[in-house]
């Protein structure tokens, strides 16, 4: 598979914003995109009473709205908590092997030229009693893209996540600082500069222009 595993320094840092932006840019550049968030918590019932993953719907729409059934997302839980906690509250269990196989099948059957898999929460968020998001990333074998806030506090959280990914021996493709409307651009740039001073890899700021992500796209 050719693509990225997208993790965050925390929850609500902009992973879905970045995943959607990357999927749309790839689609615009001629890629067949398989964008997948296999596990989502904090889901609400839809019109038919079944749980709807809001992030899952946004991601699949960004990839062209072709995904159906399990390829739109495998697990949905109502409790807004870590996947393990949310699954146990629903008296369910997440099958990590099923997540990996569904991802590979979706990429294979769609002949995707770019696969983007979004994790839930951060790098150490538990999925099962024995596995966390780092385990899933390792099983998928995709380069890791770390998403972080562009605002105050991001330097520490970002560098700690970079260290954790490196310690686990996974390839790190880059860091994307997700800049919100209320963020001060000069502060975002300062945070980027400080992270880059301590880590030599790619650090991007995603604000109003998604074209900054084009550097992450391989030829279609």
Beta-strand level of the residues, as a percent range?
15-25%
Shape: globular
Radius of gyration based on Cα positions:
17 Å
Average pLDDT rating: 96
CATH architectural type: 3-Layer(aba) Sandwich
Strand order of the largest sheet: 2-7-1-8-9-10
Write down the oligomeric state: single chain
Describe the largest sheet.
6 strands, parallel
Order of helices and strands: EHEEEEHEHHEHEHEHE
The helix count comes to 7
What structural category do the secondary elements indicate?
A: alpha/beta
Number of strands: 10
CATH superfamily: P-loop containing nucleotide triphosphate hydrolases
Q: Could you name the CATH class? A: Alpha Beta
Q: State the helicity in percent bands.
A: 25-40%
Poorly predicted parts: none
Distance between the termini: 13 Å
Structural domain tally: 1
CATH topology title: Rossmann fold
Structural account:
There is one protein chain. This protein is an alpha/beta fold and 220 residues long. It has one domain (3-215): P-loop containing nucleotide triphosphate hydrolases (Rossmann fold, 3-Layer(aba) Sandwich). The protein has helices at 15-28, 54-62, 83-89, 96-110, 133-140, 154-167, 185-198; strands at 3-8, 33-36, 39-40, 44-45, 51-52, 75-76, 114-122, 144-149, 172-178, 203-206. Strand 4 and strand 5 form a beta hairpin. Helix 1 runs parallel beside helix 2. The two termini are 13 Å apart. The relative contact order is 0.20. The mean pLDDT is 96.
């Amino acid at each position: 598979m050719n693509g990225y595993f997208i993790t965050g320094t925390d929850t609500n840092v902009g992973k879905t914003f970045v995943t959607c932006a990357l999927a749309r840019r790839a689609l615009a550049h001629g890629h067949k995109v398989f964008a997948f968030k296999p596990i989502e918590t904090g889901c609400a019932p839809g019109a038919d009473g079944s749980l709807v993953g809001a992030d899952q719907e946004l991601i699949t729409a960004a990839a062209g709205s072709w995904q159906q059934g399990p390829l739109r997302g495998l697990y949905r839980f109502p409790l807004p908590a870590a996947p393990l906690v949310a699954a146990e509250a629903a008296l369910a269990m997440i099958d990590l092997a099923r997540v990996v196989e569904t991802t590979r099948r979706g990429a294979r059957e769609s002949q995707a030229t770019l696969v983007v898999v979004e994790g839930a929460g951060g790098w150490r968020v538990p999925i099962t009693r024995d596995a966390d998001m780092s385990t899933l990333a390792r099983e998928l074998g995709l380069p890791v893209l770390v998403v972080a806030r562009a605002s105050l506090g991001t330097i520490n959280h970002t560098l700690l996540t970079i260290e954790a990914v490196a310690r686990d021996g996974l390839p790190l493709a880059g860091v994307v600082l997700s800049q919100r409307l209320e963020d001060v651009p000069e502060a975002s740039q300062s945070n980027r500069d400080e992270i880059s001073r301590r880590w030599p890899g790619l650090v991007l700021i995603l604000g109003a222009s998604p074209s900054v992500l084009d550097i992450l796209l391989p030829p279609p």
